[in-house]
């Protein structure tokens, strides 16, 4: 099944409520997300370099991707999709686009944290060429990395 999606920058007043709901519903049960207030989540999102929403041609929002650019590292903050759009290759497709973007901007590394309990995401990123970086055993997340150059 091929799904045609558009993407656009986040519009704070239009998208914040949607983004909070999507994050809470899809990630709220993971230890790394617990204890974060809505205000803090939005503050963090305001610090990200980009927040890109995925939309259908009719404008329905289906998820988003966000990242931060620091030195030679493009750090993927979040990639969250509506449940009915998961498992359809969307995240893989947009991760490939993000990698092309990173290469074009001369980043040499992609990184992100994945919750230790999120096996699906961990396996997706491993298939995409990321590998885990050692983290303390008590940490709720694993740092994943992919060298580009």
Defining key terms:
single chain, 149 residues, alpha+beta, seven-stranded mixed sheet, 4 helices, 7 strands, 34% helix, globular
Helix percent reads 25-40%
Regarding quaternary structure, how should these chains be classified? single chain
Largest sheet: number of strands, sense, barrel closure: 7 strands, mixed
- Give unreliable regions as ranges: none
DSSP strand count: 7
Class computed from helices, strands and strand pairing: alpha+beta
Radius of gyration: 15 Å
Label the overall shape: globular
Quickly count the helices. Answer: 4
Q: Largest beta sheet: what is the strand line-up?
A: 1-2-3-4-5-7-6
What fraction strand?
25-35%
Secondary-structure element string: EHHEEEHEHEE
Overall mean pLDDT score? Answer: 90
- End-to-end CA span: 33 Å
List the helices and strands and how they pair.
Elements: E1 6-9, H1 12-27, H2 38-47, E2 50-55, E3 61-70, E4 73-81, H3 90-104, E5 109-115, H4 119-127, E6 131-133, E7 141-147
Structure description:
The protein is 34% helix and 31% strand. It has 149 residues and is of the alpha+beta class. It contains four helices and seven strands. The radius of gyration is 15 Å and the shape is globular.
């Amino acid at each position: 099944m091929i799904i045609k999606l558009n993407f656009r920058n986040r519009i704070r007043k239009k998208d914040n409520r949607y983004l909070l709901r999507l994050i809470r519903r899809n990630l709220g049960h993971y230890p790394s997300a617990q204890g974060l207030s809505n205000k803090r989540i939005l503050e963090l999102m305001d610090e990200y370099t980009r927040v890109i929403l995925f939309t259908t041609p009719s404008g329905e929002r289906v998820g988003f991707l966000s990242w931060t650019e620091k030195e030679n590292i493009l750090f993927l903050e979040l990639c969250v999709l509506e449940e009915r759009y998961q498992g359809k290759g969307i995240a893989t497709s947009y991760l490939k686009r993000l990698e092309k973007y990173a290469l074009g901007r001369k980043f040499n590394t992609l990184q992100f944290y994945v919750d230790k309990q999120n096996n699906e995401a961990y396996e997706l990123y491993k298939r995409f060429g990321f590998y885990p970086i050692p983290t303390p055993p008590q940490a709720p997340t694993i740092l994943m990395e992919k060298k580009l150059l």
